[in-house]
Specification:
It is built from 15 helices and twelve strands. The longest helix has 25 residues. Helix content is 42%, strand content 16%. The relative contact order is 0.15. The chain is elongated. By secondary structure, it is of the alpha/beta class.
Length: 389
Amino acid sequence: RNSFCTLLGHHRRAMASEEDVARQSVFAPSSAVPADAVRVAGPRFAAGSAGERACFDSLETTGFQASQLGRACEIVSEMLRGREPDAEDRCVVYCGVVGNLFATGVRDALRFAAVHRQLDHVVVSAGGIEHDLRRLFPHHSYQAHEVGESVAAGRQRLANVSFVARPCDCRGTSCCFPHVLEDAVKWIKEERACCRVVEDDEVPRNCDVKTRPPVFDRDRVCLSPSSFWRAVALFMDKVLPSATSDDSFAIRCARNNIPIYCPSFVDGDAAELLVDDASIAIDLTSDLNALNRSALKAKRTGMIIIGGGVVKHHVCNANLMRNGADYAVYLSTAQEFDGSDGGARPDEAVSWGKIKADARSVKVYGEATVLVPTLVGKAFVPHADASRV
C-alpha cells in the first residue's frame, strides 16, 4: 500500500509538472504592444457614402496584401512628394511595365501618370507600345470576355482579353496600325536624312524629330528603341485626330519628353517590320547607356515595377549604378522559390546593391489589373497637377 501511494504521488507530481510546462507554453505572457501598432480594421461602409473612399482609406489596416498595397501607396506618395517644386532633392521615378498590360486598362491608368509628368523613365517589354498604339485604330479592337468562353476564329487571346484585327485595304488613310507604322518609318528616314553627317561636318537644324542624336553611316539611320518609339508616337500624333491620340500612353510620354526604353525591342511587331529594311537599324546599347547615366545623376530615385523579367532587371540594374534606389515598389504574382528575378523580393535586391539597405520598399503579391488602378487612384491622383490635361 505504501509503495502504491508513493507511485501515485510521483505520478501526480509528474502530471502537475507536465501541466505546468503546457500551461507556460500555451499561456505564455505576451510582450507589450508597441505604441505605434496599427489595429486591424476593414472599411466602414455607410449607405449613401462613397464606398471606394472607404476602401482606399482602410487599405493599410485591412491586413494581408491589402496592407502591403496600402504601404505601396504610401511609398509612391513619398516619391511624388519628392518631386514637388520645393523638394530639396528631386526624386527620379522609374517605372517598369510588362508589355501585355498595355492590352488592358492598366494602360489607361498609367497614362494618367504620363499626362501629369509623374514618371521620368519608363521601361517596357516588347509588344507593349504596339498594343498601346494599335488600340488607337478602328480596325483593331480589344475585347474582354468571360473566362473559358470560346473565342471566334481570327481573334488572338490574352487570358480573357481578345484582340480582333479586321481586314482593311486602307493605303493612304490612318485607320490601320501596320500601314501607319510603315508610314512612320518612312517619315523617320526622311526626317533623319537631313541630319546625316556631311563632308564639311555641318548638320542642318531643320529636323522635326527631337530625339537623342543618333549614330549614322552613309546608308543607314541608327536609332535607339526609345528614339524610335518617340518618333513613331510623334508621327501618329500628327496624322491622327487629337481626340484619338490623347488616349495613347506612348504619345503622352512623347509630348512630355518621358523616354520609353524597350530592351527586348527585337521581340515585338515593330522589329518584324524592320527586319528586312537595311536602311534603319536599332541600337540597344545607347538606351542602356542613357538609362544608367540618368540614375548616376539622380539625387534620389524610386522604382515602380509592375511585373518582372527584363523590365524589372533593367530598372534595378540602372539603380545599381548609384548603389541602390531610395524607394521601391514591386507588384507581381511571381514567387521567389525558383530563383527568378521576377519572383525576387526587395531584400534580395538589397543584397545586390540595387536597393539601398535603408530604403523604403515593399512587394505586393497580386495581379496588376487589380493593383495598378488602386495605386494610381490613391497615390498618383492626389499629387497630380489639376491644370494638366
